[in-house]
Design goal:
Length: about 350
Amino acid sequence: MGYRGPTRRVGWMLAAVLVLTGCGENNIESVNKDAGTQSVNGWRVMAASVEQVYRVPGNVTADDRIQLSSRITGFIQQIAVREGDRVSRGDLLIEIESAEVTGAIRTAEAALTAAETDLEDARRDVVKFAELAKQGSLPADTLRKAQVRFDLARSQLVEASSASETAVSNLRYTSIRSPADGVVISLNKRVGDLATTGAPILLIESHSSLVFQTYVAEKRVASLAVGQQIAVELDALERPLNGEVLRIVPSGDRVTRRFEVKVSLPITVNLLPGMFGRARFVVGATNRVLVARSMLVERGGLVGVMAIVDDHAEFRWLRIGQQWPEQVEVIAGLDEGELIVADPASDLFDGASLIVTPQQ
């Protein structure tokens, strides 16, 4: 009996410890549960009419591109510009050696003088032979031949005069001047090179009429019209530009099945040819869910919202469409009428218990 007494007391002590331990665990669970509950504002998801936008990439380009070439053959004596230089209408660009042209002018002038002299001599013969023919002292055939010679000399004078004018006009072509205000884009020749008729020498772009050039898919081109207002978003500019459809080329590419469209752009500071951007064509409207940016959260690299389901937070990954400064368009992941957290805290986790205050 002395042995059983201590054993029984130890058993009672162990039972008491276990009871106390169990009560402590229940208290800890209750505290943790209360600590995990957050008070949040709920917002009922609504849909609104949203313009459906078709975006297509493109580039700013000059509507006036002028390829300059020589109308005569000769060696380039001087190039007064370089790539990137701004030029004004009438500025000297290229000088071509004029020795051959000057020689041609002298030859033409000499031929003109000879033709004038020959015509004057033929005229005198006609006058003299006509008088003699009246007196009957000259055969009529001789007068006829003199008249033929006069007509031929007159034709030769016209030909020589035209050749002289052409030679003189060619002298003007030895100096190539800018036909418009613009910027030199490329030079294909250097000093000493031979300029031949029709061979490109330099390219000028006029910045007075810049356009946005893009290519639209065949299923979209039918919805466009000349004069339609278009927003153009350029990567180099902070704000979009308001453009207008200028031209639609009614012949598509056989490989890409796209049609060229040019959009006129307003005169804008720092707008340059070659800038990349996207044209926004409005092709219709539909109802979409819109969510304020302040309601978005990021979890594991995914952007979404915290939906409220049975007073618990549930992370919903969203497929986002169009974006604006204050809100975004939701294409998938959220339906109209669902309740989401309007002001999610950074530590709000998936499955957290919530006390929801409805927000009007």
